[in-house]
Amino acid sequence: MNIGKVVKSNVHTDYVCQIYGRGEVEHPPEPDHYAFGTFVRIPLSDGCGDLVGVIYDTLLHNPDFGNLGPRLSPVSDLEIFSPDYLTEKVTLVGVAVVGMVGVDGMPVQGVPPLSARVDTLVEGMADHEVRAFHRREGGGVRLGYASLLLTHRSALVRPLMLCIVERLTDLFPEEQARLAVLHHEWTWRTCIEPMGGGS
After folding, report:
1. Pairing assessment for the beta strands 90-101 and 50-61 based on DSSP bridges
2. Would you place residue 191 in the very low, low, confident or very high pLDDT band (cuts 50, 70, 90)?
3. What is the SS3 assignment for 96?
4. 144-190 pLDDT tens trace
5. How far is the first Cα of the chain from the last one, in angstroms, to the nearest whole number?
6. Where are the alpha helices (DSSP H) in the chain?
7. 195: phi > 0 → left, psi -120 to 50 → alpha, else beta; which?
8. Alpha carbon distance 21, 29 (integer Å)
9. Rounded to the nearest 5 degrees, what angle is found at the Cα of 100, between the Cα atoms of 154 and 27?
């Protein structure tokens, strides 16, 4: 389902998506559709495939915060008399791009050569799409973008990796033993490294 649209980028692999709100689309997404660790796709122009990203942060934008002046209309009337006022309060999510799926359907993990455009739709990925993106050729699971995420400036990267490993454990039950090792390592890094225990 479409959860929102691209409104800006911070760097080549870091996008900001504005989540659709009430009145913008017929069926606005529910919070679990854009939860932390959710995989999304961003279609590229001219049918060049899709970027694949993962939601790593949420920002609530309320331009009226701190405005204690008198109101001409009660909040309940704004939807009728000033509907544009409501759209100024938005939910934004950060999307870290971890690869792409080409027009041939082949997934490529890592930094994609192409970038999305402003106002491009952002769509949630189904379980089978997430599984296909992570399936290693010949069988198994791959996380070739882990080093890319590690360079991300967000402090939420390590909890994000834990979330991804847990999701992949559900999608690849046959890889549970290997993924458990990764989960243990990332749990350790998340707990110890902030205290100066990592290299």
Report:
1. antiparallel
2. confident
3. strand
4. 999 999 888 888 998 999 999 999 999 999 999 999 998 888 787 77
5. 41
6. 75-81, 83-86, 127-134, 146-150, 157-171, 176-192
7. alpha
8. 8
9. 80
| CA dist., res. 144 & res. 67, Å (int) | 47
Q: Which residues have C-beta within 8 Å of that of residue 53, sequence separation ≥ 6?
A: 15, 39, 40, 41, 42, 95, 96, 97, 98
Which residue, chain included where needed, has tokens 């000033």? 82
* Count of CB atoms situated within 10 Å of the CB of 53: 27
Q: Letter for the amino acid at 151?
A: T
In angstroms, rounded to a whole number, what is the distance separating the alpha carbons of residues 41 and 95? Answer: 10
Question: Rounded to 10 degrees, what is the CA torsion of 17, 134, 109, 51?
Answer: -30
Q: What's the gap between Cα 58 and its chain centre?
A: 9
Host H or E run for residue 107: strand 107-109
Say if residues 24 and 12 touch (Cβ distance below 8 Å). no
Question: Considering only CA atoms, which of 49, 56, 50, 60 is closest in space to residue 18?
Answer: 60
